[in-house]
Amino acid sequence: MHAYIAVPATVALVWRAYSRDSLTPAGILAAAGTGIVHAIHPWSVFFALLVVFFLAGTAVTKVKHDVKARLTLAASGSSGGEGKRTHIQVFANSLVASVLILLHYRQLLARDKSGNASQGCWPYGDDILVAGIVSNYAAVAADTFSSELGILSRSRPRLLTSWNFREVPPGTNGGITLWGTVAGFFGGLIIALTSVLLLPFCPAGLTSRTGKLFGDNQPGLEGGSGWGLREKIAWVIAVTLWGGLGSLLDSALGGWFQASVVDARTGKVIEGTGGKKVLVAGSHDKKDRNSSRRVESGVGFLDNNEVNILMALIMSVGGMMLAGYLWDLPLRTIFQ
Fold first, then answer.
1. Residues 6+ positions from 191 with CB-CB distance below 8 Å
2. Residue 10 contacts by C-beta under 8 Å, 6 or more apart in sequence?
3. How do strand 268-271 and strand 260-263 relate by DSSP bridges?
């Protein structure tokens, strides 16, 4: 991105988080650093994906926030609901993408000896790092939409990882509903549409990274390197589906490896502060130690942040591997 766009855009993103009190001070610093990494890349699409994810995620978090707060409990014993997001939560959603963006920027610089990596377009069947970056945001956006909107479903969630698909309280890790699943795919669709509008695709008729006209370059699905309408539609469908699958993977990982602790008196799920684990026996407070808590599901091996970053890593690497299989590009090309 150009500096005259990147600098004010990053400042505006940080200021919005500060003014809306949506991030902790450390979370604001993490968001600023993440924004800078996305902004130094010459393509504007990756910064746009970050902004769209942040704004859309914030919007769905606030949907019927008072209703969602009454469905769960905070670890302190008060009403639940998402509080300020911490730096760990910021990195859980964006760290994998940030690393891939830096790798892609290095590749662009290596390919263009002039040092102007902003020129050129993206040929069909080339550069699986792009698929990995978009996969990250499709998956984390789908997971956010699914979690924040699915909890409002009128039907009780069912545990994805149970043999009998049993009902569980709202907010249980691994619990899914039809409404939440649909919302997840919609979140992936938002990322897919953003990417297809802003990625510098090489159109049919153009080839090479410099965008020079070589004549009748065939569309990618016909053996060429151009992106026509069919290729872009296929991209949107693939990214949307991959994002929705990422949401389901997050539910599966959460259901298996993240303990969902329920307050036995109210039957409500207890949420850990900042995505941390919830103590089954309570806290150091004597009164809280006497409260009755039980594990609804999961083994407690990971906390929510660790589940999120593991899901993002699996979906990003998986997206690159799938693209590499379709385009006959080995995964090692991301380091070349």
1. 49, 52, 53, 134, 137, 138, 141, 142, 239, 243
2. 32, 35, 36, 39
3. antiparallel
- pTM for the full predicted model: 0.90
For residue 219, the SS3 value is strand
Helix (H, G, I), strand (E, B) or coil at 74: strand
Report the distance separating Cα 30 and Cα 34, nearest Å: 6
Q: Could you give the residue ranges of the DSSP H alpha helices within the chain?
A: 3-19, 25-40, 45-62, 65-71, 87-111, 128-150, 178-198, 229-257, 286-289, 304-327
From first to last of the 336 residues of the chain, give the pLDDT tens digit.
666 677 888 888 788 887 877 788 899 999 999 999 999 999 999 999 999 999 999 899 888 888 888 888 887 665 555 667 889 999 999 999 999 999 999 999 888 765 555 557 899 998 999 999 999 999 999 999 999 999 999 999 999 999 999 999 999 999 999 999 999 999 999 999 999 999 999 988 654 555 454 455 788 898 888 999 999 999 999 999 999 999 999 999 999 999 999 988 888 998 888 888 888 764 444 344 445 788 888 888 999 999 999 999 999 999 999 999 999 999 999 998
Q: Which residues of 184-212 are buried (b: 16+ CB within 10 A; e: fewer)?
A: bbbbbbbbbebbbebbbbbbbebbebeee
Asked if 175 and 168 count as a contact pair (C-beta separation under 8 A), the reply is: yes
